[in-house]
User: Fold this.
Amino acid sequence: PDVDEQQAFDELIAQDARIEPRDWMPEAYRKTLIRQISQHAHSEIIGMQPEGNWITRAPSLKRKAILMAKVQDEAGHGLYLYSAAQTLGITREEMTEQLIDGTAKYSSIFNYPTPTWADMGAIGWLVDGAAIVNQVPLCRCSYGPYGRAMVRVCKEESFHQRQGFEILLALMQGTDAQRAMAQDAVDRWYWPSLMMFGPPDEESPNSARSMAWKIKRFGNDELRQRFVGMLVPQAEVLGVTLPDPELAWDDDAQQWHTSAIDWDEFTEVLSGRGPMNAVRIQNRRTAHEDGAWVREAAAEYARKQALRERE
Ligand code: 3HC
Assistant:
């Protein structure tokens, strides 16, 4: 770039201003945004599967309606985020292909099974709770389209988290069997939800640059701490136990002390060897193939429309 383009970019970042699609940007800035935004979009779309698994088996019409609304929201979040990524010069087809051929990542959290109804509560409370902690700072991301998409996503995410908390509360006020089911779900989702924030800062290859470019506003460990601090009082209200006997506030360090997180499990899941990775990708591939005729019909209709308009 000539000096003043780089300088203009650096000044916009320094002033906390937005970088818009038409602005000059370093190629590495563009690439890391395509990486993060597309993976975020993939997470939303894959994230529809664990909950979709319970729409036909929700315990009441009210719960069914709420769960359907939540899964539809996630499809919409995927749409906003794919659209934001497309402003950086990648196509929807390329991103879909990267997801289906396994070269693109999506959040590890969606590679775990949802065997009971209580999982719908644990996902809402823990997974959407973690997503809120991670996504609120992203509303101030330096890249305009991403930050603006996050504002809308965060509004809907808080409804997701509330309904999850409420499902668990109803179960914890129920029978012993319902209480045990809720505790079992919290036990299975707690540690994977901490891994959503990414590896420890010292093992995060992207954090330094993402923070310099004001894409990432806080480090992985700081947001993980913020999330744990939010969960502790809510777990007390619910009457559930967080599955970490070492969890305690360390007043000297002014932070939560937790047991060691199993980063080997994290690496396994990211390498495609989690409990549900193959199922999630196969479902996505099948949906893409089964939907090919719709895309072809829409493209043919658009072609004919364009011809008609030229007549
Ligand atoms: N699952 C999968 N991959 C993960 C991960 C996770 N939980 N945490 C980190 N990674 C990957 C990173 O993508 C990176 O790999 P890459 O360079 O090939 O992309 C590598 O592990 C190292 O991690 P870094 O900390 O260096 O990477 P980042 O700086 O990108 O930080 C992040 C990771 C915090 C997840 C960041 O990418 C981010 O904030 N992404 C946007 C938010 C997001 O994706 N949230 C999770 C989805 S939950 C959701 O949105 C659905 C909701 O509706 C419930």
